[in-house]
């Protein structure tokens, strides 16, 4: 499967200021590790069409990137319900949407792993870094994406002993405030036993970048075709693939 099926974003590189030894690497999941944005948008549009009897407008890729990416499923369900009209509640929309989304990613390999993960993960482990995931997904949904997306396709993870290859996996179930609030990144750093300033975060949205920076971490933005129009001015560096993060882990 090809991720996204859209034109790749341009590369914009700025040299970040380094401060302190890097001890941990923290990944966002959706749109960063795996292309869940495509099945999320597809399933949302299907549910909008079903619940609005075809009257609701389709959410185009540009609108998805600007309004939906990185917002969390509850907020996206509120937006989807609003498109359908006053008679559709956010709760009803969320249930129907996530059920359809889960069908689309039910098989191993059904959600494409994005470029550069294997190289970056292997390098981080070689350097002895702790590796974690901090995602706006609910816990069950996150595990499904990791299982059928990352674990099913990553040669680097298949070579690792232990459950899943990540030291810590943090989801929206673990926090009360969601990105762009820094709570999920601060909690992940605490669980890792690593100071925030010694963590690099990999994110694909301005919302996620804001969360990482507000946590006092260094953040590499790797936009995908949906989020390339986001404002990444707060990121320490903006790159094209995860593999380009590797030199940043070699700093002092």
- Whole-number count of domains: 2
Radius of gyration: 18 Å
What is the strand arrangement across the widest sheet? Answer: 3-2-1-4-5-6
CATH architecture of the largest domain: 3-Layer(aba) Sandwich
Query: What is the CATH topology assignment of the largest domain?
Result: Rossmann fold
N→C terminal distance: 38 Å
- Tell me the structural class: alpha/beta
Topology:
Blueprint: E1 24-27, H1 37-51, H2 61-68, H3 73-84, H4 90-104, H5 117-126, E2 130-134, H6 139-153, H7 155-158, E3 168-170, H8 183-192, E4 199-203, H9 206-214, E5 218-221, E6 237-238
Parallel strand pairs: 1-2, 1-4, 2-3, 4-5, 5-6
Helix pairs in contact: 1-3, 1-4, 3-4
List keywords for this structure.
252 residues; HAD-SF_hydro_IA; 9% strand; Riboflavin kinase; globular; HAD-like_sf; 6-stranded parallel sheet; HAD_sf; 2 domains; Rossmann fold
What do these coordinates show?
This protein is of the alpha/beta class and 252 residues long. Helix content is 39%, strand content 9%. The protein has nine helices and six strands. The chain has a six-stranded parallel sheet with strand order 3-2-1-4-5-6. Helix 3 (73-84) crosses helix 4. InterPro entries: HAD-like_sf, HAD-SF_hydro_IA, HAD_sf, PGP-like_dom2. This is Riboflavin kinase. It holds the Pfam family Hydrolase.
């Amino acid at each position: 499967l090809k991720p996204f099926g859209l034109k790749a974003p341009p590369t914009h590189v700025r040299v970040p200021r380094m401060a302190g030894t890097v001890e941990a690497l923290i990944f966002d999941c959706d749109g960063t590790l795996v292309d869940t944005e495509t099945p999320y948008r597809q399933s949302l549009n299907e549910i909008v069409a079903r619940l609005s009897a075809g009257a609701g407008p389709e959410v185009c890729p540009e609108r998805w990137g600007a309004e939906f990416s990185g917002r969390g499923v509850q907020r996206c369900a509120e937006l989807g319900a609003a498109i359908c009209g006053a008679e559709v509640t956010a709760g009803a929309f969320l249930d129907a949407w996530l059920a359809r989304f889960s069908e689309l990613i039910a098989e191993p390999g059904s959600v494409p792993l994005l470029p550069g993960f294997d190289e970056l993960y292997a390098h981080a482990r070689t350097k002895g870094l702790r590796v974690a995931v901090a995602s706006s997904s609910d816990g069950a949904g996150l595990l499904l994406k990791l299982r059928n997306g990352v674990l099913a396709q990553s040669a680097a993870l298949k070579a690792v002993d232990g459950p899943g290859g990540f030291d810590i996996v943090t989801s929206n179930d673990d926090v009360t405030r969601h990105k762009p609030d820094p709570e999920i990144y601060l909690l992940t750093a605490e669980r890792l036993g690593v100071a925030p300033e010694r963590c690099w975060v990999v994110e694909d949205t301005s919302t996620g970048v804001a969360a990482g920076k507000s946590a006092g971490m260094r953040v590499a933005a790797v936009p995908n075709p949906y989020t390339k129009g986001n404002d990444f001015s707060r990121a320490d560096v903006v790159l094209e693939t995860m593999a380009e993060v590797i030199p940043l882990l070699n700093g002092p």
